[in-house]
Amino acid sequence: MIVVLSGGVGGARLVDGLARVVRRDRLVVVANSGDDLWHWGLRVCPDLDTLTYTLAGRADPTRGWGRADERFLALETAKELGGDDWFAIGDRDLGLHVTRTAWLRDGAPLSEVTRRVCAAFGVGPTLLPASETPWETRIRTDDGELSFQEWLVRRRAPPARAIRFEGDGAPPTAVLDALDAAELVVFPPSNPFVSIDPILALPGVRERVAARPVVAVSPLVGGRAVKGPLAENLRDLVCDPARPLSEQLVPSIIVDHYAGLVDRFVYERGDPAPVGVPSLATGTVMNDVADRVRLAREVLAFAGVDP
Ligand code: FO1
């Protein structure tokens, strides 16, 4: 079994590459639940949905999240009425949230709801939410604590002073079983603080991951995050204000964050090599499907695992 712990866009691209090279019954993908929210009275699970849409070939190719060929007529109505319009839910996407919320209200666990969605959309690998129950990432800012989406989307990522996870998070049994059976655990190029850490913080996860071979792919390229607020998180949470940022936003900052967990590290060719862990320098930016497949093959070969 190959188990991937993933956030949204960056993670989903490598997951898509892995899904194209690994036998479907050998790949388990665990989606971060910390970004999930109630919006318009509906349960919305952005990372789970980004992975679902990407694996189903239905993701919007430019935004990376939400559906391709999307329209926002419901959002327009909400705006016209003076309702909440800061979080852009598209009409096609809305259909998933309505259905998921109804199934959850009928008593189905989130993992079962996800199984039904994946079956209907023809998703091959097993996709699991990291938590069956709400497990929210909370960001402390100078103006108080915010939920993840309020912080990222509504407030446009003001400096994060601390991050914590709130709720009675509970991984589905299938997540723990998959980790127990994992030949390899993969951390794709997702944000360590707000995508991977929320999964690792769930009961039973970190110790299982630590007992398995782990390969991580750097989410930093040339001192920048490929997508999202990672560079700002690093600057605000771990960098030394007395030293130039350019010296610090390098792959080793990610390796240090994952100390004790990661056995092998893949990073962008041309960036400074991290110390203390076997590493592979290659092209980590995935602009098209060929890049996703090539990187997936390279990660597996470097980890010594057959697809
Ligand atoms: N990201 C935005 O920047 N603005 C949005 O309005 C927005 C809406 C949205 C709706 C559904 C969904 O699944 C994702 C959405 N995202 C939006 C992306 C999301 O905020 C983040 O990219 C992920 O949570 C981080 O992985």
Could you explain how this protein is built, in words?
With 307 residues, the protein is an alpha/beta fold. It has one domain (2-303): CofD-like domains (Rossmann fold), CATH 3.40.50.10680. It contains 13 helices and 14 strands. The strands form four sheets. It has a seven-stranded parallel sheet, sandwiched between helices. Strands 7-6-8 form a three-stranded antiparallel sheet. A two-stranded antiparallel ribbon has the order 3-4. The mean pLDDT is 96. Residues 7-8, 35, 44, 46-47, 49-50, 65-66, 87-89, 93, 149, 152-153 line the site of ligand FO1.
Small-molecule binders: ligand FO1
What is the fold named in CATH at topology level?
Rossmann fold
Mean pLDDT: 96
Quantity of strands, as a count = 14
What percentage of amino acids are in beta strands?
15-25%
Helix count?
13
Question: What is the spatial order of strands in the main beta sheet?
Answer: 5-2-1-9-10-13-14
Category by helix and strand content:
alpha/beta
What is the level 1 CATH name?
A: Alpha Beta
Q: CATH homologous superfamily name? A: CofD-like domains
Fraction of residues in H or I helices = 40-55%
Largest sheet: 7 strands, parallel
Distance from N terminus to C terminus (CA atoms, Å) equals 10 Å
At CATH's second level, what is the architecture? 3-Layer(aba) Sandwich
Q: Estimate nothing, just give the exact number of structural domains.
A: 1
Backbone shape: globular
Order of SSEs: EHEEEHHHHEEEHEHEHHEEEHHHEEH
In the predicted model, the low-confidence regions spanning at least 5 consecutive residues are: none
Radius of gyration, CA atoms, in whole angstroms: 19 Å
